[in-house]
Design brief:
Cofactor: Mg(2+)
Shape: globular
Pfam families: YdjC
GO molecular function: deacetylase activity; hydrolase activity; metal ion binding
Organism: Anguilla anguilla
Radius of gyration: 19 Å
GO biological process, one term: carbohydrate metabolic process
Distance between the termini: 18 Å
């Protein structure tokens, strides 16, 4: 069998958010449409998700959450800089505003991340195979230093660096969303040195910002992967054959972030505040159906794209 051109980790994020999300992710995994999952340990159905991962031998990592719902560290459930006036995390943009204003304690960030890793271990029986941040908080200034140290403490080998080729060539993205993604990429580029100094690894290419929700289609996924292959052509590795060193192509390694599932019931799910609008929308099911489209599977075969987990890179 020829060597793959691309090793593709398709990660189903927000595992544990609700039972309907969990079932959709399992359905995708069993269909060979995703190859990896990322668990929200503070979510309502985290234990159900962890049990499903064990039952179906799903490669699983930690989707560290500092922006939505409740902390898992008991000592941070009141009087913490991580909480707003309602006693929950500040939210995607609120967290960033508090950080920019110098109002977040990095000691509390560290305590909460340690608590989430430990809860992950209790739920799954092992430490995470990879660890990233819900809503990309792990690449933010200051947070990335704490995050990298926690990964190093638990010998978590992989993280996510959300810098996506072709992002600026997506005119259909709303301006506010494009601005947010552009800032995420800026933060991610500045996090590279921090992660590298701690010996943490990540795939060659990240995809998912331009293929999320109703922006996902077979065409958009194919286009994103083609951008990845143009941006990072297969590298050369040297092997010895018959006493001579010969160059062989190394597969490109890629992570595709996805959010498949069935729409959440309005009163069920979330991380302590109920499910958000995205979770209740049809966008989740749309992603599920797109990922399971036979045309996408045919594209993977045609282009020698091998779906795998982080442990297989």
């Amino acid at each position: 069998m020829p060597q793959p051109k691309v090793k593709l980790v398709v990660t189903g994020d927000d595992f544990g958010y609700c039972q309907r999300r969990n079932q959709g992710i399992v359905d995708c995994f069993q269909a060979g449409a995703i190859s990896n999952v990322s668990l929200l340990v503070n979510a309502c159905s985290a234990k159900d998700a962890a049990d499903l991962a064990k039952r179906h031998a799903m490669p699983i990592g930690l989707h560290a959450n500092l922006s939505e719902g409740l902390p898992v560290c008991p000592n941070l459930r009141s009087g913490s800089t991580l909480l707003n006036d309602d006693g929950v995390f500040h939210g995607k943009m609120g967290f960033r505003k508090q950080l920019q204003n110098g109002q977040l304690s990095m000691a509390e960030v560290e305590r909460e991340l340690h608590a989430q890793v430990k809860l992950f271990y209790e739920l799954t029986g092992h430490f995470p195979l990879h660890m990233d941040g819900h809503q990309h908080v792990h690449v933010l200034p200051e947070v990335r230093d704490v995050f990298a140290q926690v990964l190093s403490d638990y010998a978590v080998p992989y993280t996510r660096v959300p810098v996506e080729p072709g992002l600026q060539a997506c005119p259909w993205l709303p301006p506010a969303l494009r601005d947010f993604y552009t800032q995420v990429e800026k933060d991610a580029r500045e996090a590279v040195g921090v992660f590298g100094r701690h010996g943490i690894r990540w795939p060659d290419v990240y995809l998912g910002l331009t293929t999320m929700g109703d922006s996902m289609s077979v065409t958009s996924i194919k286009r994103a992967i083609e951008h990845a292959m143009e941006a990072m052509p297969p590298g050369d590795a040297m092997v010895t054959r018959g006493g001579e060193a010969q160059a062989v192509g190394r597969p490109i390694t890629v992570e595709l972030m996805v959010h498949p599932g069935y729409p959440s019931d309005p009163q069920q799910g979330g991380c302590g505040q109920g499910p958000d609008d995205f979770s209740q929308s049809l966008d989740r099911r749309h992603e599920l159906e797109t990922l399971m489209d036979p045309r996408l599977q045919d594209f993977y075969k045609q282009e020698r794209i091998q779906l795998c987990a982080f442990r297989d890179l």
